Protein 1
Amino acid sequence: MNIIAWIILGLIAGAIAKAIYPGDQGGGILGTMILGIVGAFLGGSLFTLLQTGSLQLTAAGLSIPGVFVAVLGAIIAIFLWGLLNRRAV
């Protein structure tokens, strides 16, 4: 998949994941895009691990199931980013 498709998939997956995930995540369009691209790689790699049993760095494709996997990966990425970015009150 080329870089334009990754950017499109990242925007779609990041925007959907931010809309689904409760709370304020902050970040603008660039943060959403990076979050979505990371989610696409995370979701694609986890999906490949569940299917084949081997861990490979793969991205989800630009299709309906690919967007679904990328959104799940982006939700996981939002959760992990929240854990790393948690501030003590």
Protein 2
Amino acid sequence: MTLTRREILGAGGGLVAAFSLSSAAAWGGEMVEIKMQGRDDGSHVWFDPIGILIKPGQTIRWTNLNPGNSHTTTAYNPANFDRPLRMPKAAKSWDSDYLLPDESFSVTFTEQGVYDYYCIPHEHAGMVGRIIVGEPKTHGWTELARADGDLPEEALKAFPAVEDIMAKGVVRRA
């Protein structure tokens, strides 16, 4: 079989397009990076991205890139300071403890569902994030993600919508 120049160029263009995908869900085994960031004066702190879609078995690594602050990545789970459950019941909870600048913490996600997390000292400032693992298949899959629980108003306002994460794959802060 002989390929024409047009077919070769078309295949190459498709390959380039595939490698330029920004959605972490496109690459099953790839480590996903979430940056912990903030303004130099400490007036604003955030996770970047704030919402992400991954496949079961993928690992997320949070890295504190904020030179003036310590941060945590802590799952909303009663095991962590009796916080409301905002993740799958069968999933393992996590708490990174305080990460100094340039320190990292990783979690591998195996259970499908919505996982909400926060930074302990900055939750009141809206430093929260949302991870979706897999695809919704049953009624009530996003139920916990819509529950208010006992969260600060700034945190509740900061969560990206499940539908936005599902549509875009990655949601950055506004």
Protein 3
Amino acid sequence: MTDSVRLAMWSGPRNISTALMRSWENRPDTRVVDEPLYAYYLEQTGLNHPAREEVIAAGEPSWERVVVELTAPGDGVYYQKHMTHHLIPQLPRDWIPQLTNVLLIRDPAEVVASYVRSRADVVAEDIGLVQQTELYDQLGPSTPVIDAADFLGAPESYLRWLCSYVGVEFLPAMLSWPPGPRDSDGVWAPHWYDAVIASTSFEPYRPREISLEGAALEAAERSRPHYERLHAVRVVL
């Protein structure tokens, strides 16, 4: 076992990343951070996301300060929920290997169908799979990839695997949590987190009938090869 773990979970939006943050936050030895690069991303890109000004005001727009905090030594487990679309080209990535990194993927059609319910405009780079393959290439083939559908089919097995991978004991408390918001949630939670705020555990995976068109369909189709590449090397238990 190790005394200090900085676990960076790199996901796209509309995945189970917030539920996983709940799971790890339910451990007594773990602190969490919710999308620490979001303010920097919005300020740099000028994109119009829900609660844009509130996110920038509440967050840290300096990537250098964010990285110092993310990589600082500390005790216990530091669970970092990251969005890979925040890795814009001008953001250096040489600090990322200092963390224990895991990629969390989800079928892009499912991601896009969920994403456009909160933000109508979408391109492939918004859902993060393009950047996930870049990150996988940077970090190397030993980087674990977990598919959300697999995880939801066997959450205890995958949590046990994750705990073993980072060198901490699995705790049954990771499988359920009290409903409601958390102080650790980003200020964007009212726009994106309705389901997880009401949740008390991981919901079983349910295939969905999805119909996309226009820009949404193009975003999903452009993301598909990146998803299939990572899906082929995912952790299978």
